[in-house]
Design brief:
With 297 residues, this protein is α/β, with parallel strands linked by helices. 40% of the residues lie in helices and 20% in strands. The protein contains twelve helices and twelve strands. The chain has a seven-stranded parallel beta sheet, sandwiched between helices. Strand 2, helix 2 and strand 3 form a beta-alpha-beta unit.
Length: 297
Amino acid sequence: MRVFLTGATGFIGSHILPLLLATGHEVIGLTRSDAGARKLASVGASAHIGTLEDPSGLAKGAENADAVIHTAFDHDFSNFVANCEKDRRVIAALGSVLKGSDRPLLITSGVGIGDPRNGEPAREDVFDTHHFNPRIASEVAGQQQLEQGVNLGVVRLPQVHDTVKQGLISPYIQMAREKGVVAYIDQGANRWAACHVNDVARLYVLAIDRAESGAHYHAVAEEGVAARDIAEVVAKGLGVPAISVPKEQAEGHFGWFAMFAAADIIASSSQTRQKLAWAPKGPGLLDDLRDMDYAAT
């Protein structure tokens, strides 16, 4: 297939790209710069110049593709709500050129959207339209496209990691460096699901090949890693204390990050594993946090 890959030079997309090429797909990678285009060309992909701020331009990149994988996202979490709305507009634009065809569109969301609200891990067959996470805008947009005849699927992400990046934990580390302490809330018993980036990339390729309309997949290797365990490993890496912050003081300490610091985002991937024969193999989140070079981040 000829696959249009947004985020092709980004954290996850740059891992998806070589897998697509290795399995015989042709890739058109979205990039915002000539330098990015040269990078794509060097690995055997073609480039489409565009930005998330220009959804119609992205739609043109999808027009001649057999499939679209959308991983691009503005990860300025301090402006998260607006960026989720931006993603909603992009999904609508991509869907507009795929409507009424079998060409699959695979979008990206967060595992929390599958929260059954009963204390159990989030599941693929749950769609919590009232979830607190603003990323719900992406899945609502996807559902609208699905209802309009787009062959749409969703990959829901946990904390995606290697020894350089770890999803929300990357800004958490930066905040800890600035404050001189690594904080968790109360006992730090809340958990975050996680998966190594290589396993996540492999899931995207399996999902786009399957091209199942309406499918939801969870890219989860670890159902939940405790916030206190994360904090203690990060504190050791930074050489600063790990401390508990009372829940009522969380907003004052964490600012915009407080919503995430308090969240218990556990998730299962049992349905995904069964459907795609996907078996994560990468190192765990705490292993990558122990092995990262904190001086270089």
